[in-house]
Amino acid sequence: MAKRVWDEETAKQRIKSKIGEVQTVTIKEYVRTTDLTGLANGVAYRVDGVHLYIDILNIGDMLNVTAFEGETAHRRTLRFLNLHYRAVRNILKDVEAIEVDFHNQRLHAVFAKPYDDEQARIFKAVATAQLIRDVLTKTGEDGDDPLPAAKTRVGIDSGKALAVNNGRRSSREPLFLGNPANQAAKRAGGTDEGIYMTNVARLTAGWDKVLDVDATALTTTQIEKAQDEAELEVTVDDVVKTWKDELASSPIAKFEFTRHTPPFKTIDLEILTPANSRRQESASIYADIDNFTRYVADRVDDDEDAKDAVRCLHVLRGELDSVLHDDFAGKKIRFIGDCIHGIVVEGTAQTTDDAETAKNALLCAAAMRSSFKLALAELEADGVDVGKLGLAIGLEHGITSITRLGMKGERTRCCISRSVLASEAEQRQCSGRQTGIGPTLYKHAPEAFQTLFGTNRRRSDFDYPTAIEALEPKKEAKTASLGLGLLQTATVASASSDFSFPRTPAQPSRTQQGFS
């Protein structure tokens, strides 16, 4: 099995190369003719729009329908998501919204139209959110193995954000960075159904502020007001009919699973379909750039400051991807805003080596933190304002399914399991200096890492030198002890009490390079 390692000098050269890719950055204003697909790395658009996040709340119930997370639970969950993704995709096209991302159970869309009318955009977003919620209550399935309707929670905010290229290699859809995207995501992050808006958006819509935006859903009267103002041309019945017609003409294939021969670095996500999905035990990693939302919000209005934000994001997430893909043979599923989601596996096509997977996943997380700190230092040395950024990392181990959902020609990646949800939850509980691990990965981790993380399974400043020192604490000590022992023997044998060897190793001892 190949050894997975991180090397500081290699990382430094990668980072310098990425900095060179964005020496020239252009900030443009979003206008009617702007095409946000296929953006170059050095281009960002300042977009004034309304951000909508929709979270399907009962995805966990789908995955936990049985005690064991078997193929049946995964098949039902993936079909559940696929049905809903098809319906939502049609709605967003009909209302001319920008589909940003559909990450498992969470959708992000942006409303840039109507131009020059923020209140109208908010009303349109609210009306669309209610349309989606109404449609998803009708897209369950009856029969021998019925699927439930989706339970949803919506978050909405409005304001300026930066649209940039969201990826490397084959994934280059637009990504929106800034406060409105983050605030909308937070409002969608609760447990109760309904539509939740920030006070910024409420005031623009002409509604009063509320004390607790996360506990105060829009009222029926407010939603009806938005529907009347938006005058959407598409109805629930229209969407459901189109959805049923599509299912009849292009039915969803049965989800069939095979195992991928490790490592995940070699998996081609673009060939996956429901009938050609992967499923095996692996580790899920979420690494989120902490404080990046405020960092962008403080810089979005000034072109020169915004350029630094684009440079910073390009270098940081690019290096995180390189650590995952190049150093530890993992696979990026996608960038979600300023967060990267990846998967790691070790073993054979028949069996996952759980212990080796857990160890290398943690080494990968540690290397990400070391590369992150190195990248910040290199960016600062190049004159880029990096603010006060941190990295929050969460990991968990479990049986995971990987596929693509949607219609042929426009499929979206999906990587789902209890462990995927748990790794994201671990990341969200961490500060910008912390790494958190789930109970299953903790069980499979080396004893040295279990000791390091403790019973709360969380550790601050877990970087690569710290990880290596935990795994090999005696190696340096043994070398020194052996050298001292030989030297002491020679001293005793000496005929002259005035002559002695210095009490130091006979050759330079190995030291760990990296950040403290």
Instruction: Specify the number of helices.
Output: 16
Q: pLDDT under 50 segments (min length 5)?
A: 476-516
Our estimate of the beta-strand percent is 15-25%
Please name the CATH architecture. 2-Layer Sandwich
Q: How many separate structural domains?
A: 1
Helix coverage percent: 40-55%
Determine the CATH topology.
Alpha-Beta Plaits
Q: What's the β-strand tally?
A: 15
Shape: globular
CATH class: Alpha Beta
Rg, alpha carbons:
26 Å
The biggest sheet amounts to: 8 strands, mixed
Mean pLDDT comes to 88
What's the CATH superfamily, by name? Nucleotide cyclase, GGDEF domain
CA(first)-CA(last) distance? 30 Å
Judged by helices, strands and strand pairing, the structural class is alpha+beta
